[in-house]
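sorry for the late reply, my laptop died twice this morning and i had to redo everyting from scratch. anyway the thing you sent over, i finally got around to it. pasting the sequence first so we're on the same page, its 268 residues, then the predicted structure underneath. double check i copied it right bc i was rushing
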Amino acid sequence: HGYMSVKDAFRKNLSIPLAEWKRWTCPSTVAIDIGAANGDTSVPIAAAVGRGGIVLAFEYSTAPHIAVAAQSLINKQRHGLNLLPFNLGVTGDPSKTGNDLRRYVHVPSWLQAVMPLLLPHLSFVKIDTDGLDWQIITSFASLPSDVRDRLAFKVEWWAGARRAGCGEESLKLWSAAAALNFSVFAADGATPFPSCKSAEQTAQSMRKGAASSKIRQRGINLGTFGGNSLFSDLILLPRHVAPAMRQHFCPHPLTGTDMASLPQLPIL
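ok and here's the structure:
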């Protein structure tokens, strides 16, 4: 049909079922998907925040953005989900705006300027930008502390950085989290990774205990563990928020006035 329904999106993300997204999002609040691709995560996130919530999906490349735009229309009609797609790149540098063909936004500044009513209700940010993630995480330091302290991040740990172990690119992720005063957890949201070194030690232990000799022979390398592994994504939470208590630190739900302020689809 050329679109992805909620069911299809879940099928693509069997390793991240709806219940997993609900652990970090909050009902009837705002979530942001940075690096939305074709919407295979945007749609389940929209389902997690529910009909009273909203997902802002940012995708730099035009073709997948159009796919997200189609999905937003279909899933609004069929399921009442609120997914707003934007054909924008995201940057950690407020001075970077791009050109006539490619536009960039600094999300915290953009939200404050374009959709200020949504800002107090922001609960979740997913980032998948192939190595630029740490810059975008750092940009959220500009948010008011009462907004920042209710956020949860799900951040891709780029495979290119993991293959280099705890090199400069990986260390920047931990530095960015520290700058926000956030703790870092593995993709399961339960295993603490206070440092990149601790993640590397966990990978080493898993390799030694692996039943497969093929895995054991590959050497100690975070890149050995591919997508959908304990190391493919990182969960970031404010230091005062334990994973099991995340739902106790949610922002207030969106109101009818907030929802009425949203732009109408389609946004192209």
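Strands lie at 30-34, 54-58, 83-86, 89-90, 104-105, 122-127, 152-156, 182-185, 233-238.
thats about all i looked at so far, will dig more tmrw
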